[in-house]
User: Fold these one by one.
Assistant:
Number 1:
Amino acid sequence: MTESKIRAEITGLWRIELIALFGILTVFTPIGIDLYLPALPTIAREFGTPIADIEHSLAAFFLGLCVGQVMIGPLSDRFGRRWPILIGLLLYIVGGAACALAQGPLTLDAARFVQAIGCCVPTVLARACVRDLFPPQQAARIFAQMLLILSVSPLFAPFVGGWLLPLTGWRSLFWLQVGAAALTWGFVWWLLPESHPGSDRRLHPLHVLKDYWVIVRDRRFFRFIIPGMLTNAGLFVFLTGWPHVVIDIFHVRPEYFGFTFVLNGIGLIVFSQSAARWLKTHPGEPLFCAALLANAAAGVLALAFGFTGWGALLGLLPFTFVYCAMIGTINATGSGLAMHHFGHAAGMASALIGVLLYGGGALASALMGAFVTPTTPVPLTGLMALFGIAGAATYLLFRPRPAG
């Protein structure tokens, strides 16, 4: 069946089912990151290893997301959408089961890497399927509906993980992901048509790397993405180290961990959506600069409160909220500014942004994991402040000088 015939037949209940399915496909990445965060200290105790060794599993996950995004774009253009999504979900299932059965940090790291490669496939290709199957005016509304599902999932995942942890153990969190992916695989097989017939696109690695290099070396691109990558690295430091700070240092029970996490997620979502609205009628660069400076200031204040101990956990929460909220603005604004001159290669530019953000996140997460068993929030807040300052400094450094 041709793409135009499929478009004509997508009506009524099938249309609703497909939109719901696309929304579900986008949540596997945030669920894979956030659901097991409250369990990190518990896993470390069970394996008899420092928390840093378990935090490396997050770095492995971010690295898998980076590798997966590099691969899936060209592969899906070459072979279509449906079978890559089905194979990606199978990888997610295999990786999740291996996580649940892991007997040590290294096997957990390897399993998380496989799981991440699997989960980025449905997340990326769900958006591609919408572009394939729906006309532009409908696709915009569908993306908004998908974004709602995507935005809500990271807020509830730490709550679910925290409450299930004492009841069923940490391994059940991965079995839950395996079950959800298996159920989704069945719905994809049943509901999703092939939306893209494939092409004769060249898949030689050197050809793909050359296309990426042309974009990354353009000053109009990297002057916005490098600051965004650095501040986003601070977010991944927060995701990696925050469970240890909350549960082990401030002795908050895992089932209540989500309450310290949810406000930061809400801030990130609200400010990213506010930035999108602002950009419709205002220039983006002043907002980008202001968000970078606010992010850096929040990181420095978080470090000050973490170093002195003022207010304990409550003293940190306002600054982690501002830090994460500003990253929502930075990512939304910086991505738009970076892609402004690359309409002819929007897909490649978008994929490259994802690669740089997740690649930087993997390195930052590994750096946070280098601190074996921190006894204060200083390593966490210090790295957040460092990346925040570096993000603002690189933007100022790369900013064009006035003529004359």
Number 2:
Amino acid sequence: MTIRPPDESPLGHAVHVTTVHAADDPRIFNKEALALRRAGWKVTLIARADHDHTADGIRILRLTASRKRFHRMTIGVLRAAKLALRQRADVIHLHDPELIPVGVMLRLVGATVVYDAHEDLPAQIAGKAWIARPLAPVVAGISAILLRLAGIALNAIVAATGTVAKRYPARKAVVIHNYPDFPAFSPITDDYAGRPANIVYVGGLSEDRGLRHMIGSVALLPPELGARLHLAGRFQPESLEITTRQLPWADHVQWHGWLPADEVVDLLRTARVGLCVLQPLPNYVDSLPTKLFEYMAAGLPVVASDFAPWREIVEEAGCGLLVDPTDVESLAGAIASLLADPARARAMGEAGRLAVMDRYGWPAEADRLVALYARLSQA
């Protein structure tokens, strides 16, 4: 039994660890860490940051960011493990596949360890530009073995979707969807029809996320609509930025770079349509992208890829239009129809917001996370 100093929370000390994500990661910090802190846990986050500090009652311990993947996955992992061991945690919550071996070692010394499976890693391998195509099946196989090890050795698995959870033992997997914290997204109170014809996409900027298709579709819109595409996110890989900005249609785009959560909300308030046209890759067709629900929470009608799980959500809520994400003309047609009929578009946006408030919001997911921690602390 861990004996805590008197200034620590009576519920225990949770330590979240990531070598990949920054300290202000929306899922890790804004949702999970804050949910635990509000429930009464002491929370420490070990992540990439400029310096050690405390934010919203959560202590953040700095990991030095590394541009070299090998360095991050070796030296970075060892540093993170060392920091985690020093914290005398009741629960250690790992967020990256490269940390799974660390989790196994921590279990051997009696620690309670949770692995957070943000995505379906073996399926994700196919879309990794840094992995040579002939090696992708080998890397996917190794990753599947790593995940199996996590399912056997660690105390619990937090899975972002039901599809991801299927890779782990049912008795250990808890689905915690990455739904938006909808109170942060205020409803539309202004003149929606009076907004500029802004189309928005928030997320990683890459070919597999439909970057070229989004830019190309805006170039096909009737000039009288006055449409402009707003892109917020980092290029993946960074070298893609040079070639993308040279595209003949790039003058239809406003680039925002990466934005913190509050500025994302501000950007959505200026838009009339939200785009989510990920390409039909194994990691995406069964995913539940956060951006889809964020657009809905902000009251924006969506234009989304016609994948089965997304179709069920969009059609049931009546919150937007579905398209073949590989068809630029189809994408352009859907955008144009929403811009040309603002009353219909606004009604779709309001329907999406109601759906998020009713069944796709973060509060219920936060309750499941807190309940998992309660079970682990009593085990």
Number 3:
Amino acid sequence: MSDVTMQNAFTIRDVVMVFKPRIAVAIMLSAIGGMAVVDGASPGLLQLGLLAIAVFLAAGSAGAFNQWVEADLDARMKRTANRPFVTGQFKAGPAWLMAIVGLLVAAVVLAGLATNWWAALYTFLGAFTYGVVYTMWLKRRSWVNIVVGGLAGSFAVLAGAAAINPSIGMEGLLLTLVLFLWTPPHFWSLAMVSSDDYARADVPMLPVVAGKQLCAWVILGHTVVLSVIALIPAWYGMGPLYLAGALIGGTLFTWTSIDLVYRPDRTRALKNFFASLLQLCLLLGGAVADRVFGAFI
């Protein structure tokens, strides 16, 4: 591969990473989970697929806006010091802002045209919560930043649920609550891993302001509550595949959270972070599997 080709490949990769695709995928999966738990007449696989893409793009625009706003903050943290807006590979100027806003507008319009405007509203609110409420208003000011920021995933669930039935229903509301409760312990586990970074950057994440031990207890409390609430949709019509995913994922996340309380170090915090991801995959995967294959069980 020539040097020019390699340089172009790295540029494409860096452009993609500006939009935080891994977070966008998690947000999109939350929307798909919302589609799966709600009863109603589906607008069709094509329309639902387009909504999933719209949620992904909206989340990506919020992730890019986060990096655009936080170039100065990212420069003070080892974990983020190599991001393109920090290194100068990309200039955080008005052209990028216009592209980010344009992408969000396109995503919201796509969501509305593909399904309905309630789904479009929730798609917008998820991106707005992460990009503006969390990034601009709360992250540098209060330890509750990620608690409120957790609404980004919750709005994605509502977008998916509203695409099937705008009234949402109890199952959709319960999954929305679960995603709201899931985000803080998921992110606080990662914040414990990078607590020195956040302390140097003067970002008031919970492990910094309260200490790792108290943070571990708070993580455990959140994990237990969300794991219990995640089981309740089984009493509202969700079947055994959903219940199995919720039970296994919740048990694993609770176990690693208990371990984190006993020894709140970096290794166990990272283990808890990955356990939270596994719980989310099992929960949402169980919801989808139950919707697709539940009739055959």
Number 4:
Amino acid sequence: MENKNKVYKTVMLVILTAFLTFMITAFSMYSYFSNNSFITLSGINNSTGSISGKNNSELEKYLKKIKATIDKYYLWNDKIDEEKLQTGAIKGYVEGLEDEYTEYIPADEMKEYKENIVGNFVGIGIYMRADEDLGRVVVYYPIPDSPAEKAGIKAGDLIIKVNGTEYTSNDFENISNYIKGEEGSTVNILVERNGERLSFDIVREKINTNPITIKMLDKEIGYLKLPSFDEGTAKDFEEKVKELKSEGAKSLIIDLRNNGGGIVTEATDIANFLLEKGKTIISTVDNQDKKEITYSKNDAIFTMPITVLVNENSASASEILACSLQDNERAKIIGTKTYGKGIIQTLLSLNDGSGLKITTEEYYTPKGTTIHEVGITPDEEVKLPDTVKSIYAVKEEEDTQLQKAIELLER
């Protein structure tokens, strides 16, 4: 992370979860309320900066004392931003839970936060990184079939100007604000490639940041790579499997390696496509010990043999899908032990536009075991060879895990 050319993870309307979406911030599953459902965060009064609530609250009294002390002694008290103080106080209170998955999201960050969860963005479809040696923002690579790729943007292009204004690597954190815009609008990007400057007028579109990729392997085996569980992933999965079947696939490999999770219902919907009616997918327990069981609702629409690839970065919704297939003896799991995130977060929308992502439930496998901080042990533990330089870019000839999956399907 100290490397000058490090890849920053940036969520944006156009640049899309920069570099790898499996990273820890992605190791969360979300179920969230509709736009018409809110809870009120009692105590926030934006107009006065006061903290209301229970009259005899010790917390209220203490915060009022702190505020009075700041007002009396702070050198630059005429420059105090009450809204920032409130936000800091709330964030600090929530952080006191010492739960890395629970956090307060200010109102001005909620839109972008929700878009990150959903995984659909309006933009041109590129991943970027800041190259301090070159002093430029560099295109890491364009999303396949994105407006950027179709226009001719290539990996390694140096972004020089956006709509006529020049930017450098120092502008990395903000450049997405100048590239993003309304769907159907046009942005001009000037890039430098091999010493030549090229200008592109690109129409912004809605882009799926993490599309499922598929291909046919030998022996009539269909392969699907699921990078995350975003909104619409289950529907996309269904369409992609049908496409593979039309190409002759009689068995499937589902690759969940480096998939950090996403929306729970997308994973359970996929399990529903693959399991017989009435099978347990997962069960959850809340802080009142209330247990809910999710069963497969319909007969399986895909009944061909399946193997599933996982690794240490397979988490949350990935683990839900994997364990549901493993415990129901529907598929063999291959690879290395999974991450072990067996808790679910809910994103609550508050009445002032802010939000609280909070851990609400723990989930259990169909056989009733917990995987939180334990992970799922594959049926076939297979490590990649030492020659593999990165687990995120494995050549097929070196992919021992994929080879084992193929071997099992051929038996």
